[in-house]
Input
Amino acid sequence: MRLLLVEDDPVLGDGLKTGLSQAGFTVDWAQDGAAADAALDCEQFALAILDLGLPRLEGLEVLRRLRRRGQTLPVLILTARDSTGEKVAGLDAGADDYLIKPIDLDELAARIRALLRRAGGRAAPVLEVGPLRLDPASHQVELEGQPVNLSTREFSILQLLVENAGRVISRSQLEAALYGWGDSLESNAVEVHIHHLRKKLGSDSIRTLRGVGYTFTR
Output
């Protein structure tokens, strides 16, 4: 899933971006509040991780503007500000979670997954559709009880399709959700990944609606 990380500390930001990427997320990184506000206004993200003490525009104002636009994506505040008053202000401004630095990366990834589950309207941590079982935490997939080895991109596409089983997801939606700033994207990248998934899961597992998109059918 594609995340927006908003952090002005270059060392911490680089570490978080690297760690979350290794955990399977696509991470775009904005280093000031104005850049974050512009990105959130015109691009698609699954979740934002927001520092409060930002140059050009305070994190709390970024959050307020986001909610005034009616955007509902989950926001996790990650800050060194630890007073009760600041926590209350952040949550009341529309944040979905509030964490104090420094943070363990495994805990951060787990909280992100929990927020994404809640945003998707599901409680179970593991996705199961028919004979397919997908675990976002461990990045493991089983089909009829047998493990299936997937690349990072294949797993991400499958997760998005399974989370929306029965609904059609367009190629542009897949690209927007999975490819961040600076990622090279060939014109047929999604089709190639879909082809590989069908070879591993069965040719009838993903249906193409020509000119519309893809849907998971198991």
User: Anything to note?
Assistant: The chain has a mean pLDDT of 93. Helices lie at 10-22, 33-42, 59-68, 84-92, 105-119, 152-163, 171-178, 189-201.
